[in-house]
Every structure is written in structure tokens, then in C-alpha cells.
Specification:
heterodimer; A: 111 residues; mainly beta; six-stranded mixed sheet; globular; B: 111 residues; seven-stranded mixed sheet; 11 strands
Chain lengths: 111, 111
């Protein structure tokens, strides 16, 4: 099955710094999503981005499907950005509704 | 629109018991997927239902089962609970190619 690898596993930043999180996947995909897991465990949708580039405020994401990777950019980080960021993909030919998650990047933003 | 809701939010059971978790999708969403999150295994796909039919199933034992009702609400059941079933159980709903939206989760503790 598809393998999803995220890097780095951990990241510590000072407030105001920028960061780039990476997601590599091993096969072609129908769907790629980025999530932020809040301290209570809920997965918050950041981007649905199987290809191309999207921006939402201080966050942006780029997926290069032909090279099988996606990047999540966080600019001017804030303490509220802390938490775990997950990349998840749905493979081609998937029968439906199955996301395969990476192990996550744990981000800590210090004031 | 209201988001995905899950009940109960927290649950404590003892080994050997069974448990039923409930998920109400976003209005109009017909696909519901279930995931298990543990510190050791990360986020893993359990199964997906669409129009009351299980379309996809992950690699979990038969003690894990689910169903979907005509109003798209879904339940999952775990029988003969084991200590290793302690986890955060997340459900997600989707409609078309816009990605999955997650509920707040049910945190199950097995003693």
C-alpha cells in the first residue's frame, strides 16, 4: 500500500518564524489533505490539495503530484499554531473513504 | 452547517465488554469513515460506509464492526474489548471530491 512520510517529526520555533513541513508519498493519489490536530484531538482541515498551490491566510500548501510530495508553509508562526500536523492521502483505485496518514510533525511555537 | 458530531466523547470500559460509538455526518454527506488513533500506531483506517453499504475496510479484527443508517448516521461497535483497544476513535464524513471532515472523536479507555 501507499506509504506516507512526513518530515521533520518535531519542530520548535520562536513566534514569528516561518516553517516548511514536508509530506512524501509513494504512489499516485486521488486526494491529499493537510490537517492540524488540536490539543483535544480533533483534526482540523487545513487544505484539500491533490495538486497545485493553495493559500489560506498565513498558511499555504503546494502539492507536486508528479514528484509525489506536498509542502505546508506556515508564515509568521503563532503559539496557537502549536500541535501536530498530519498529511493524509487517498490512493488511486481506492474503493472509497480511506485516508492513509503520515506519522505527523509536532510543532511547538514558543513565545 | 453543523459539523460532524460524535457521541459519547469519553468512555471507560473494562476488558471483555463491548462498546458502541456513534457518528452523525455533516448534513448531505453520505460517506462516513472511521479511524483509530493510538500513540504507537498513529491514525489507522477502520472502515467506510456509503449509502448503508461498507465500501472499504482496514486491517482490523472482526471484533470491530460498523453500520450506517438511512439518514447516513453511523455506528461502530467493538466487542470483547482488549486493553489495546484504548484509543481515540475518529469519524469523518465527505461528499464528492472535497476531502474528509472529522468529528471531535471518542476517547475510549479500556481497564
Amino acid at each position: 500500500g501507499i506509504q506516507v512520510e512526513q518530515s521533520p517529526p518535531d519542530l520548535i520555533l520562536q513566534e514569528g518564524a516561518n516553517s516548511t513541513l514536508r509530506c512524501n508519498f509513494s504512489d499516485s493519489v486521488n486526494n491529499l489533505q493537510w490537517f492540524h490536530q488540536n490539543p483535544w484531538g480533533q483534526l482540523i482541515n487545513l487544505f484539500y490539495i491533490p495538486s497545485g498551490t493553495k493559500q489560506n491566510g498565513r498558511l499555504s500548501a503546494t502539492t507536486v503530484a508528479t514528484e509525489r510530495y506536498s509542502l505546508l508553509y506556515i508564515s509568521s508562526s503563532q503559539t496557537t499554531d502549536s500541535g501536530v500536523y498530519f498529511c493524509a492521502v487517498e490512493g488511486l483505485g481506492n474503493q472509497g473513504g480511506k485516508l492513509i496518514f503520515g506519522q505527523g510533525t509536532e510543532l511547538s511555537v514558543k513565545p | 452547517k453543523a459539523g460532524v458530531t460524535q457521541t459519547p466523547r469519553y468512555l471507560i470500559k473494562t476488558r471483555g465488554q463491548q462498546v458502541t460509538l456513534s457518528c452523525s455526518p455533516i448534513s448531505g454527506h453520505r460517506s462516513v469513515s472511521w479511524y483509530q488513533q493510538t500513540p504507537g500506531q498513529g491514525l489507522q483506517f477502520l472502515f467506510e460506509y456509503f449509502s448503508e453499504t461498507q465500501r472499504n475496510k482496514g486491517n482490523f479484527p472482526g471484533r470491530f464492526s460498523g453500520r450506517q443508517f438511512s439518514n447516513s448516521r453511523s455506528e461502530m461497535n467493538v466487542s470483547t474489548l482488549e486493553l489495546g483497544d484504548s484509543a481515540l476513535y475518529l469519524c469523518a464524513s465527505s461528499f464528492g471530491q472535497v476531502g474528509q471532515y472529522f468529528g471531535p472523536g471518542t476517547r475510549l479507555t479500556v481497564l
